[in-house]
Write a structure and sequence with these properties.
Layout: E1 2-5, H1 16-22, H2 33-51, E2 58-64, E3 70-72, E4 77-86, E5 92-94, E6 100-103, E7 110-113, E8 129-135, H3 146-160, H4 171-178
Antiparallel strand pairs: 1-2, 2-8, 3-7, 4-5, 4-8, 6-7
Helix pairs in contact: 2-3
C-alpha cells in the first residue's frame, strides 16, 4: 500500500497574519513574508507527521495491489472522491459510490465494501486499486484544531526568536511538544 499527497493544501493551518502577530511583526511589514511562509509550512509538516494527521484539506491517493477487507485512509478523512481498479480483463473501472462505504468518522478513515457487497476481482498485478480522497479538517485555518494551531505558533516563536533559541530543552519547549498529544493517531 502506498499513500501519497496528490496536491498540497491551498492554505496553511496558520495564516501569515497570525504568524506576524505572534512574532510582533507589523502587519504591513512584508520583509519576512517569504521566510515566514516557509517556516509555517515546515512546522505544519512537522506537526502533521508527529500526529499522523492532515490539518487543512488536500488531495490524497492510496494505491494497492488488491482490495483488502478495509482500505485505510488518512486522518481525518474529509471525503472519498473515487475508487478505481483494474478488473480481471485488464480494464480500468470506477466503483459506483453505492458499492462502498467511506468511513469519515473513524480516525484514521476507511473505505469498505457496502453492506451486502463485496470488492470486485482485480487483475493479478501490482497497483490495481486506486483510492482518491480528501484528507483534512476542512478548507482553511479556521477548521484546524486549536492545539495544532497553538503548537505551530509556539514552535514558530521558539525557532524565530533568537532569545528563545537554546540548545537545551526548557519547560516552555516541553509544554509546546505536549500540545500535539491529544491529536496523535495510533494504529
Amino acid at each position: 500500500m502506498t499513500t501519497r499527497q496528490v496536491s498540497p493544501p491551498a492554505v496553511m493551518a496558520v495564516t501569515l497574519a497570525e504568524a506576524k502577530a505572534q512574532l510582533r511583526i507589523e502587519a504591513d511589514d512584508t520583509a519576512f513574508d517569504a521566510q515566514l511562509a516557509i517556516w509555517i509550512a515546515g512546522i505544519t509538516r512537522e506537526a502533521e507527521h508527529a500526529t499522523g494527521r492532515a490539518f487543512v484539506n488536500r488531495a490524497m491517493r492510496v494505491t494497492l495491489d488488491a482490495f483488502p477487507d478495509a482500505i485505510r485512509l488518512s486522518a481525518p478523512t474529509f471525503s472519498v472522491e473515487s475508487i478505481k481498479f483494474v478488473d480481471a480483463n485488464d480494464q480500468q473501472q470506477t466503483l459506483d459510490p453505492a458499492d462502498y462505504y467511506a468511513d469519515t468518522v473513524t480516525e484514521p478513515g476507511y473505505a469498505i465494501a457496502a453492506s451486502g457487497k463485496a470488492w470486485p476481482t482485480t487483475a493479478a498485478r501490482v497497483n490495481v486499486v486506486t483510492v482518491d480522497y480528501t484528507a483534512g479538517y476542512g478548507p482553511d485555518a479556521t477548521t484546524v484544531p486549536d492545539a495544532a494551531r497553538l503548537y505551530i505558533l509556539a514552535r514558530l516563536a521558539e525557532l524565530w526568536d533568537p532569545i528563545v533559541k537554546e540548545f537545551k530543552e526548557t519547560v516552555r519547549s516541553n509544554f509546546v511538544g505536549r500540545l500535539l498529544d491529544s491529536l496523535r493517531v495510533y494504529g
